[in-house]
Amino acid sequence: MLGVHFAITTEQEHSLLAADGDNDTVSELLDEIEESWSDGRLKVDTDKAWDAIHRCLTDGTLGPDAGEYPLSHVVLGGRHLHDEYHVVYVSAREVRSVADALLPVDRAWLRGRFDAIDDTDYDGTHDDADFEYTWDNFVDLQAFYDRAAAAGRAVLFTAT
User: Fold this and answer.
1) pTM for the predicted model, two decimal places
2) What are phi and psi of 30, to 5 degrees?
3) What CATH class does 3-159 carry?
4) Which of 4, 72, 61 is nearest to 33 (CA)?
5) All residues at 6 or more sequence positions from 75 whose CB lies less than 8 Å from its CB, including other chains
6) How far out from the chain centre does Cα 131 lie?
7) pLDDT tens per residue across span 108-142
8) With 0-12 CB in 10 A as exposed, 13-18 as middle and 19+ as buried, what is 65?
9) Where are the domains of the chain?
10) Looking at residue 72, what DSSP letter applies?
11) For 84-102, what is each residue's pLDDT tens digit?
């Protein structure tokens, strides 16, 4: 599954929250968001690195309730809007907390957490190249959250 984060507009946020629990409507809204998105600064693709990033920022697992807030909300923590896919909402207030928590995360800290991943269901190669891939995507995600917080936007993570 490929991961994407969007810093959604207030209108998109209201529509998605109103559709929570209706998988078909959430899917339609997500399709509209993906097809009409034009602001590359308020979107970031993390490809498959979202998996390792979530594990590094939490307890090493993919559990949506894993780890401590606010780092737990970078990828899978937050309000889940779809039963079959990862469609995870983080409010604008929470986005500011997430952005602030990401600021001190540096390469050495992330590498230590990456090396500690010991979950047998991790599909990555768990080698130096995999860490570089994870780090590069993390840096993009870190900057994205800062921009989303500055814009006062909520964030939607999707992996379908």
Assistant:
1) 0.96
2) -65, -40
3) alpha beta
4) 4
5) 3, 46, 50, 53, 54, 57, 88, 157
6) 17
7) 999 999 999 997 899 999 999 999 999 999 999 99
8) exposed
9) 3-159
10) G
11) 999 999 999 999 999 999 9
